[in-house]
Model the fold of this input.
Amino acid sequence: MNNLRRRKFNVYYWTCIVIAICTLVLSNIEWQTILSMLLGATLLPFFIFDERGKFAFPDGDEDVED
Done:
């Protein structure tokens, strides 16, 4: 099940990248706007839903040892 979830998010990330590239090539929207939308669409699910985000960026409160 974990492998299926990882593949689902990988497909989501690649889909967002392809949409951003096509939008960049085919429209006259500024590239900064497209990049910010891409970052928002990929980073929010990475931190909130994808469990790899928890391992990549752990909370500071849990790792601090006195």
User: Anything to note?
Assistant: The chain has a mean pLDDT of 77. The CA atoms of residues 14 and 56 lie 19 Å apart.
